[in-house]
Amino acid sequence: MTDAAATDERFAHAQEIRDQPDGPGRRIGKKGELTIITPLTPNGGKIFRERLERIQAQAGYWETKVGTVENFRVLLFDNDTKMLITLVYDGDFKPYLADIARAQPWLDEIFGDIVEGYGGYDDPGTPDLVISRSLSADIYFHATADNSVHDVKRMQRLSDAFSEVLDAAG
Question: Considering the chain, what percentage of its residues have pLDDT values greater than 90?
């Protein structure tokens, strides 16, 4: 393979990455990404760690209720004085903010009394707080960028049903 052919092959799978049209973060296909770095309250790290087991145990329940979140990660760092939040979700930023309202009690448990300046999901200043602490990814890749969470779940149900048919026939 020539150097030119190898270069062409490496660029053949390039994805179009663009800014979210209505808020922070980047977008590839149907998938938006968001990264937030935020300071914690003086006891925020301790409070978070006390709640962590319960928060983690409820993640599947609440994220399923939201329905548009593909992945969500939270990490404390800098001696538990800062929090990194990263997520990938379906669609635009503003509809995502509306979607996550379904998980308000869980979000308030994760961030309430923990994140500096967070007054609760219902606080009118919360969207501005999120935006002001958000960063856009410099590099972002998504292997299934054109498939929403709903699409993936539907494909999984079809695959499971097909497997059952094959098993019954075999």
Answer: 72
